[in-house]
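Example record used in the benchmark description.
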Amino acid sequence: MAVYVALFVLIAGGAGVLTATADSPEIGFDNPDFEVSQNDRIEVDGEEWTVAEITEVESGGGGGHGGGGGAETSIVATLERNVTADQSETWANESTVQLDDREWRVEITGDDPNSFTLVEVPDRQAILENDPQADNETVQRDDGEYVVVTEDGESTLVPAGEYFPAPEERAYAAGDSLEYGDQSVTVDNVTADQAVLAWEATETESIEIEQHSRVTIGETEFVAHFADASTLQLSSDIEGYEAQVAQIDQFQQYSSGLTRVLVLAFLSSLLLLGAAFIPSRY
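Model output (structure tokens):
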């Protein structure tokens, strides 16, 4: 029986040594397509991207009322690039728009127009309030609308059409440009129902990348790996990455098997030692 105990102890010791000394394989790229840090630039399929940020992010955790739940830290990189996008806005006939801090009415005439007119909509209330000699409201008579103007204690009815200044008008045809919303826009098209303005705007496109995630930049697929908290590696060798993942899975299965052998051998040794102290009936 002592021989069997020694054998199981030897097996357990060997499994323990192999488990303790085995080096777990890790994901790594010897020749990545890109190895960059924050503010570095890369060019992929004619697109230029900037590494805007590489930061550590805490996630998970929580657990109130005395619970534990420590937060996990992961690394996230953000790639950005500026792209030019076509934008447009439609002005319907008889609608009002804001331009140069004033209100304008869109007027389109004719069945087949190629132009439109912006007619200023005066702020009548502001004009009346700024005139100390005029009442703050117009009055309506049978023959029209009037403004009451008082001079030297004598009130006079002034026709609204004479009192208020003539509205400014601006005409635009297809192809004309105007300043709108702090940018230059072009009259792209005019129909009987509407005028269409078009312009180009710069937008920021961004991609967030996490550890060992797959990301498509341009038309190329990459797998990401953070060599450290400030270095991002991108590799298009997807097959090589999958081979490393398979190797890690195989190692984990191997390590798990050795652990089970260690436990079983140790328990078997204890069982045999315990059996040795059982009194014999013969």
